[in-house]
Specification:
This is RNA-binding protein. One of its GO terms (molecular function) is RNA binding. InterPro entries: Nucleotide-bd_a/b_plait_sf, RqcP2_RBD, S4_RNA-bd. Keywords: RNA-binding. The chain has 255 residues and is α+β, with helices and mostly antiparallel strands. The protein is built from 6 helices and 15 strands. It has a 6-stranded antiparallel β-sheet with strand order 10-15-14-13-11-12, with helices on one face. The protein has a 4-stranded antiparallel β-sheet with strand order 5-6-4-9, covered by helices on one side. A hairpin with a 2-residue loop joins strand 11 and strand 12. 25% of the residues are buried.
Length: 255
């Protein structure tokens, strides 16, 4: 089974296999924390191998990216999946500051809150901010999350199912000699390729939500690169080629 997965995914694959067995033998529902797109894919793949176990995913928002998996015996019918996710609005003084996704997430992780307890964070064009969290974590969240940086905030429960998860991106251009992963990452990080090689080998880069350690991989337009401590980048458009055959790429960085 493990040979079909990246070695960095083996531990998670074994964990999911255990979840499936728990549901199969105990006939009880198993609810996970929030999962990435790749983790959701792995859960679905392993559940599909057992005809007596089913899985549903819930992230609160329309088109949510991060979702909880709810594994259950195939004879059960799940109602009200939204009960597993709590939605909240973050209120703050927009006249004094404009808060963005990295600031919200940074303040939460500064409280030693496990990232997997937090779903999507949605910042609307009007500055209003909503987020999804695990239902069982809501009490701790309300007790401890009162500031983003030095700015005071108010938290109120909110229905988030009406909102759609749409990534907001800052666009910019890069000019690169090839579409190799190391070349692109070096341009995005503004460091040398030798430094990038080490970063890639230390599992610091994901391509389409999967850790990639092949620095010579050829990337494609549409690929999403996640670089640890640097953010998420989408290769959006091949704008042109220069006279020296270099690639001019429009990149969108998630904000």
């Amino acid at each position: 089974m493990l040979e079909h997965f990246n070695k960095h995914e083996h531990q998670f694959v074994l964990k999911v296999s255990d979840w499936v067995n728990q549901v199969y033998y105990s006939h009880k529902i198993k609810t996970t924390k929030f999962l990435t797109l790749r983790e959701q894919e792995i859960v679905q793949m392993l559940v599909n191998q057992n005809s007596e176990v089913r899985v549903s995913f819930e992230g609160g928002f329309q088109k949510a990216e991060r979702k909880r998996a709810i594994l259950y015996p195939d004879y059960l019918k799940l109602n009200n999946l939204s009960q597993y996710v709590k939605g909240y609005e973050i209120e703050y003084n927009q006249k004094l500051v404009t808060l963005k996704h990295p600031q919200i997430l940074g303040s939460l992780t500064a409280l030693n809150i496990d990232r997997s307890l937090i779903g999507d964070i949605v910042v609307l064009s009007n500055g209003r901010i909503y987020l999804a969290i695990c239902e069982e974590f809501s009490e701790f969240f309300l007790q401890h999350f009162h500031k983003v940086g030095k700015h005071s905030i108010l938290i109120k429960e909110s229905s988030i199912s009406q909102f759609e998860k749409i990534d907001q991106e800052d666009e910019f251009e890069i000019i690169i000699s090839s579409m190799r992963l190391d070349v692109i990452v070096a341009s995005l990080m503004k460091v040398s390729r030798s430094q990038v090689h080490e970063y890639i080998m230390q599992a610091g880069v994901q391509v389409n939500w999967v850790i990639e350690q092949n620095h010579s991989r050829i990337c494609q337009i549409g690929d999403v690169l996640s670089i640890k401590r640097h953010g998420r980048f989408r290769l959006k458009v091949l704008k042109s080629r220069t006279k020296s055959e270099r690639f001019v790429i429009i990149v969108g960085k998630t904000v």
